[in-house]
Amino acid sequence: MFQIILASASPRRRELLGLLYKGFSVIPATGEEVLTTRDPARAVMELSCQKAEEVESRTKGQALILGADTVVALEGEILGKPGSEQEAFAMIQKLQGRVHSVFTGVTILVREESGACRKSTFAEETRVTVSPMTEEQIQGYIDKKESLDKAGAYAIQGFFGIFVEGIEGDYNNVVGLPLSRLYREARKLGVDLIKERVGV
After folding, report:
1. 40 Cβ partners below 8 Å, 6+ apart?
2. Which of 39, 69, 149, 192 does the annotation list as catalytic?
């Protein structure tokens, strides 16, 4: 049986992975993130790979190590996590009344007892339509204190959901982990997360 390791401290990813698999370990990546591209899809793939490989280097034994990174992109511009409420306000002001993309990059690294590794890295895109918002509505959302640790300054599973008019793609991808694609890609690497699941 594989040890499943989530290379992320995100409580949202932890909750989502828990829907698919019970009994996994959380070992957050701690290394410095290095980006060589500003293309959103390539950027999240790059960062997810760095996270998975860093945690792989710190662990031993048969394991499936999962790295992930999520960004919000508007017309190709990456909107990361805001550093202040003022930045959060400016981000949401850009997003309101428009369609943007959420990209989550995932790296699945499967290591056998022998030390041999197989790896898959992919990016999933979901398009999100945000309804027009007044400045008062934006500030009201900022006051909910949901923004500062979220890519694009919002949490779709929180209060911001009332401003989301539509979603094209995987909802879980916006939260932080595309479960359907993750399951399919893991199977291609020879690991069925349903059969590996503990406690079923």
Report:
1. 71, 73, 76, 78, 101, 103, 123
2. 69
The DSSP call for residue 144 is T
Residue 198 main-chain phi, psi, to 5 deg: -90, 140
Alpha-carbon span 56 to 64, nearest angstrom: 9
Tell me, yes or no, if 69 is annotated catalytic: yes
Q: What are phi and psi of 48, to 5 degrees?
A: -65, -35
With residue 112 as reference, give the H or E element that holds it.
Answer: none
pTM above 0.90, yes or no: yes
Q: What is the tens place of the pLDDT at every residue in 110-158?
A: 999 888 999 999 999 999 999 999 999 999 999 999 998 899 999 999 9
Please provide residue 87's backbone torsions phi and psi, each rounded to the nearest 5 degrees. -65, -40
Q: Which residues have a Cβ under 8 Å from the Cβ of 39 and sit 6 or more positions away? A: 76
